[in-house]
Amino acid sequence: MTLMYQTPTVVERPKAVPKTAYLIASGDLRPAANNAGWPVQHAMELALGTALAGLGWTAQRANPIDPLTGHGFISGQRMGLEVFKNIPVDAPLIVAEAVWQYSHHVLAGLRTHLGPILTVANFEGGAPGLVGLLGLNAGLTKMGVAYSTIWSIDFTDDWFLSGLRNWTETGSIVHDASHVRDLGVQPDSAERRLGEALADQLASDKAIIGVFDEGCMGMYNAIIDDELINPLGIYKERLSQSALWAEMQTVPDAEAAAIGAWLESKGMTFKLGSDEGTELTKAQLTWQFKMYIAALRISDDYGLDGVGIQYQQGLKDICPASDLAEGLINNVDRPPVTSRDGSRVLFDGKALPLANEADWGVAVDALVTNRVWTAMGLDPATTLHDVRWGEDFDGRFVWVFEISGAVPPSHFDGGYAGAVGWRQNPMYFPLGGSTIKGVSKAGEVVWSRLYIEGGALHLDIGRASAVELPANETERRWQATNPEWPIMHVVLHGIDRDQFMARHKANHAQLVYAPDAETADRALSAKAAMFARLGVQVHLCGEVSLAD
Could you tell me if 166 and 229 lie in one domain? Predict the structure, then answer.
């Protein structure tokens, strides 16, 4: 018998053209977001093309604008695989981002690309390109793929053009990293001993963090494998968001109403309307209160030490946003929730560490921070924020940090009285739900980010101040970004805009308050010592004073 084999064929890639950079744009998974973001993206690409032309180069789109969708974003992983077939494997490649993007749409192609890679973003508030850029950069770092990165407001400034010229001539851009130093051997102090003792306790007794589905919004960088976190004494409880939805169905309306009454008694208000499609309604709040109760009961069922909810890809199609529940869970003072039989108040008087968007870099950090701050008698409520944008104000660069609605109320002046609930943007949140909108109070902050590089865990940590800006400036910044979300005005200590952008390995930053600068330095020292004892490589960023 003669067998006939069908020999597979490998698509032959085109050949690289001198002084031509191929250009791609990773987009959102949600069509509405891609359609809304395309005008800004298209304008950015034209400006980038002009800048390249000034250097004698051509920008070649790897895929044309789709006449059916009206945009040129790569909007899915399969599409990304097909687009990369049109790109010479050794050609210079630019990933241009003017919007939020799902990194896994392009990671397969980037992982095997051999030519120089440049990631570029617009530095503006209205379109979160730099947020997408930071997430993509962190993914490339995790993969061990070499890349260069740069950003600009209008792509005509000398700093940007100089960096772009370096990339076209050498295939790389080197940024200033003089603000970073390794932790090294800490001075002996009570804080160092506390951190090391807490690390030994965690490694011995172990902890469980539950996540309702991981991998939110294509954040490849936000997934940390068990092999990296288990040595820290942290283990995963993998939960399904369908279980959370099912548990929500069992919560009586009366229990949900009691949560709302408690919040109102504390002074929180809600901007209510009647149109389910565009306004916040009582029905949406009821489901959010039920989610809050359900998440705590499931956390109690599994004996969790922390929890995270993915929400946006899954629950967004069946219930209102998770942000209200998440902000409450991570606050010490919050509406009481009892066990199903009513015999116990769950996590009474405690903030349950929470990972918004199921980001493991946040989850592990939040757990460690909670242990340190609690041991020092400080408010352990943490939050993550998107590194959204920033501008100079009164002689200093002030960042806009925002997250999609989940900030613990203790971060606001007046607590709950400083919080108001607005409806989430229908473009991202079709079924609505309330945010916890407010302005983060002025005060001293420790910021950090846990990430993967070289197959190991690293922690960047530094100091910042949340500052107060005039009301009209706050409103201007809100209107330039997302006015329905909570905002923090941040001044980083000893780190300028471009140093932070070049170094930061995530779209998120983790933030926690301390009552004064000295206490913040001491708490940072204890936290750094705990992570170092656990085997994480700790890097001090900017002006950091360790306790001695």
Answer: no
